[in-house]
Amino acid sequence: MFWIFRTLSVDLAKLIQPVKFGNLTRDEVDLMLGIELQQTRVYQDAKADGEQILVLKQLTRKLGNITTEIRSRVNSLTIDRLESLGEDLLDFTQMSDLLAWLDAH
Q1: Are 48 and 79 in contact (CB under 8 A)?
Q2: Which residues contact 91 (CB under 8 A, 6 or more apart)?
Q3: Which pLDDT tens digit goes with each residue over 60-75?
Q4: DSSP string over 68-91
């Protein structure tokens, strides 16, 4: 329970940082709160969203229209898997390559 409260407190502190800690740098606030921005849930969620958007745009450009089912499968991947897909998709030449990759991962 404490971990959940601390996580919520850290995320809230990050949101109000520009208002309440405007004269401090992000690093100074991180040091004061004992956290790093990259470890917050807000940061992780934003990073995952960005990865999903980028990979889906790359897939669309490379392979054409991506179905809703495939989009859902891509959106369910972890950040590490999204990064792998982002690299591997450079070798894809057809939709079956993507489907095979998704089935394997």
Answers
A1: yes
A2: 97
A3: 999 999 999 999 999 9
A4: HHHHHHHHTS-HHHHHHHHHHGGG
How far is residue 74 CA from its own chain's centroid?
A: 12
Q: Count Cα atoms within 13 angstroms, Cβ side, for 54.
A: 13
Task: Give pLDDT tens digits for 15-45.
Answer: 555 556 668 787 787 777 777 777 778 778 8
Instruction: Report how far Cα 56 is from the mean position of its chain's Cα atoms.
Output: 13
Q: Return d(Cα 71, Cα 68) in angstroms, integer.
A: 5
CB 58 within 8 A of CB 89: yes
Rounded-to-integer distance, Cα 44 and Cα 52, Å: 12
For the chain, what is the total number of helices (H) and then of strands (E)?
Answer: 6, 0
Q: How buried is residue 101: exposed, middle or buried, by Cβ count under 10 Å (0-12/13-18/19+)? A: middle
pLDDT at 87 over 50: yes
* 64 Rama sector, left if φ>0, alpha if ψ -120 to 50, beta otherwise: left
Q: Give the global pTM.
A: 0.64
